[in-house]
């Protein structure tokens, strides 16, 4: 026997048992594995979609809650602005008359004098 031909014979003996059906069986097996991996990936994606959907729903509820709170704060600020503008109008009325200014000066002086005496006696 020729030693050079033996390796060729060894190679050909490796491929002797493979027929067309054997190749198809390997391809079918590979297809099943790929399909199984795709199903697992699809389940993982479905879980992520459910999680994201729940998370977006929670964010939506939180945004709605904050919008309601901001609306209430806006209404409270509007009512405070109305009260404050009424108070300012009253102060303007008081400062427009001379006798009112004298009265305010007298009251402010009295309060200042009272505070000085209070702090001195402590």
From TrEMBL:
Its main location: endoplasmic reticulum. This is t-SNARE coiled-coil homology domain-containing protein. Belongs to the BET1 family. PROSITE patterns: T_SNARE (PS50192). The keyword Protein transport applies. Residues 32-94 form the T-SNARE coiled-coil homology domain. The chain crosses the membrane at residues 103-121.
């Amino acid at each position: 026997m020729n030693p050079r031909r033996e390796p060729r014979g060894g190679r050909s003996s490796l491929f002797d048992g493979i027929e067309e059906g054997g190749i198809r069986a390997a391809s079918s097996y590979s297809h099943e594995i790929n399909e199984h991996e795709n199903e697992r990936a699809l389940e993982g994606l479905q879980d992520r979609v459910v999680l994201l959907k729940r998370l977006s729903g929670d964010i939506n509820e939180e945004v709605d809650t904050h919008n309601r709170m901001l609306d209430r704060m806006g209404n409270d600020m509007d009512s405070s602005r109305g009260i404050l503008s009424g108070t300012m109008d009253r102060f303007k009325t008081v400062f427009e008359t001379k006798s009112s200014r004298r009265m305010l000066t007298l009251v402010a002086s009295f309060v200042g004098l009272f505070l000085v005496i209070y702090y001195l006696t402590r």
